[in-house]
Amino acid sequence: MSLDLGRVGLWTFAFDGQPAGLVRESAAEIEKLGFGALCFW
């Protein structure tokens, strides 16, 4: 199985210590903006 993450992704530390619900909502919005990948620790 191949996973196409696109050409542009986003890497951020802005979600550190944030509630899971906020991170989920933000990730959905970032996906709608066309980013293929989101990396956070």
Note down, in words, how this protein is organized:
With 41 residues, this protein is an alpha+beta fold. It has one domain. 32% of the residues lie in helices and 15% in strands. The protein has 1 helix and 2 strands; from the N terminus they run E-H-E. It has one helix at 20-32, and strands at 9-11, 37-39. The chain has a two-stranded parallel sheet with strand order 1-2. It is globular and about 30 Å long. The chain starts with 8 loop residues before the first strand and ends with a strand. The model has no long low-confidence stretch (mean pLDDT 85).
Short description:
The protein has 41 residues and is an alpha+beta fold.
Topology:
Blueprint: E1 9-11, H1 20-32, E2 37-39
Number of H/I helices = 1
The biggest sheet, with number of strands, parallel, antiparallel or mixed sense and barrel status, is: 2 strands, parallel
Kindly name the structural category: alpha+beta
The total count of strands amounts to 2
Domain unit count = 1
Tell me the overall shape.
Answer: globular
- Contiguous low-pLDDT stretches (5 residues minimum) are none
Within the largest sheet, what's the order of strands?
A: 1-2
The secondary-structure element order is EHE
Oligomer: single chain
Cα-to-Cα separation, first versus last residue = 25 Å
Please compute the radius of gyration using only Cα atoms: 11 Å
Mean pLDDT value: 85
How much helix, percentage-wise, in residues? 25-40%
Q: What share of the residues does DSSP label as strand, in percent?
A: 5-15%
